[in-house]
Amino acid sequence: MKNLLVLLFTLVALNCEAQVSVDSTKTTLTIKEKLPTGVKTLTVYRSFVQGSGMRHQAVYQPGADELGEEPESLKLSFAEELPHIKKMMDAAMAKRQLNLSSFSFNLLPYADLANKLIDIYTNSSDWNDYVKKATNLKQTTTLFDGSEVSEVHFYAKMAKYVMDKSDFATQFDGLLKPYGYKIASIDFPEEHQQVFSADKLMVLGKNPNLFIPIPDYSISVVKIKK
What pTM, to 2 d.p., does this model score? Predict the structure, then answer.
């Protein structure tokens, strides 16, 4: 009876174990990890990069089916997500030799990354001085139909300067280093910029009046020189 229970438990465990599948075309790899809670997807695109030749961009962007309709209310953990991403990266590397140029990732749903980013800018005297002295952190943009919208606007070079002085890039070492890569640059868009919303700041227990810039989802990576 005891042996039967052990066998039954093993079969259930194997059935519940995550399954990883890889679909490929000439230019795209789509890696899916099927879990009891849903499906996670990593997509790798191949494209020509000026001056670098054919390179690959890895994109991990969970959608509404995984995050729900209100991702700003989530407090997920990147540390817990990392093993799933690595499992899909392993499957991609086993399928095709990749030459990565970037990794596209939305950090907002992950409380550990979001809190780290918020703390970096909250504790930066350079950023705080800039925000205090800035005369206008909004700009008006005219759309194709002639209508106007007011958008957040900050000095992207200042946001990058603060980022480059920080250790934020090390948060991704566990993801990139096993494959021989490191972050080359975390940039900020010049247009259609974003900052943490008051709602997201409150979910994280932060001051809703903070002005914290959000970097580009696409992070440039380079191979580590041996």
Answer: 0.83
